[in-house]
Design a protein that fits this description.
The structure holds two protein chains of two kinds. Chain A is of the alpha+beta class. Chain A is built from two helices and seven strands, in the order αβββββαββ. Chain A has a four-stranded antiparallel beta sheet, with no helix packed on it. Chain B is globular. Classes of the chains: A alpha+beta, B mainly alpha.
Amino acid sequence: MTKGDKLLIVFIVLISFSLMGYFKMQAFSDDDKYVSIQVNGEEIKRFIFDSKLIGQTIPIETKYGYNLIEIGDEKVRVIEADCPDKIDVKQGYISNIGETIVCLPNRLIIEIKGIDSNMEVDIIVR
Amino acid sequence: MNKLHKIVFVSILVSIGLGLSVLESSIPLPIAMPGARLGLSNMVVLVTIVVFGFKDGLKVSALKSIVLMLVTGSVSSFMYSISGAILSCIMMYIAYKYMSKIFSLIGVSIIGAVAHNFAQVSVASLVMKNLRIYSYLPFLMLIGLFTGYFVGLASIYIVKNLKKNISAVFERF
């Protein structure tokens, strides 16, 4: 290992930590949050966390694949998927603004966003 | 080394890379993160670039992605894998050719791993039309550091022995 390698490693570590800090700062917010479910870049569902919704599941079935999303107490996760690697299932719950669950094969993104004052959010209650 | 020898050698390298890719997909990673992988097949591409040059490196990495798609049957991950393969191949070649005084193969391999992650994340955010995907990049880069380090270390030993053996083999023809 040469000096250049060590410098490169330090450089990459610095860049990744500063990027992490940047994304953390961008996401930092105490505002109300909502969950946005997107498939192939289009938002197909959005909802805010509610005590009535705890334990509810939302099936997402598109031409790209099938995922089953479960809503918990101020958190959300994927419990079933037909993608080969199941990374979205293994990722577990997300709860903070800016966090995402991504299922690359099914082109699914579950994202927690902060609510702007002039935005309407549907609540799904079944 | 005539043309036929080279074709055979490149095909063998492609199949080794393919075998490593299939093998690594059955090794579970402790971290659940889209796009995180061991990158064992990167070893083959790196060795090809060093021993045979850029053109064959590109051939091996592109062919490996295409055949991997046929083996696993996941067309959607093909986009991510081929973009990563091509960018990492180009970056590794540039780093090896022009900066080999600064970096050993470990550095070259780390550059390749990071380039692979960057291309994958960029394609994913283009496909999903969501810039949030980039928030995975720093984590993927840190994982790429570790895997890239060990891939580079292994490549140093492979190249050392392969160069000796290859010249011995081809002198016989």
